[in-house]
Specification:
CATH architecture: 2-Layer Sandwich
Low-confidence stretches: none
Order of helices and strands: EHEEHE
Strand content: 25-35%
Mean pLDDT: 92
Distance between the termini: 16 Å
Number of helices: 2
CATH topology: Alpha-Beta Plaits
Radius of gyration: 11 Å
Number of strands: 4
Number of domains: 1
Largest sheet: 4 strands, antiparallel
Strand order of the largest sheet: 2-3-1-4
CATH class: Alpha Beta
Structural class: alpha+beta
Helix content: 25-40%
Amino acid sequence: MRTHTEPNVLTFAVEGMSCDHCRVAISDEVSQVPGVESVDVDLEAKLVQVHGTGVDESAVVGAVDEAGYEAVAA
């Protein structure tokens, strides 16, 4: 388990995202992870960037899974 204690940006590749519903579902789930300050979803690049402090990478992967997608650290 990696937890980041300094403000940073984590990037994840998420295949299968194609519409605004995907963006909203992932943003809503990931935003609930402790330490997350903002979430940027790039549908074209299939990337999710998570901005925050003390963010647990495995918790983000789990949140993306809850939204119905699979995240891999990029």
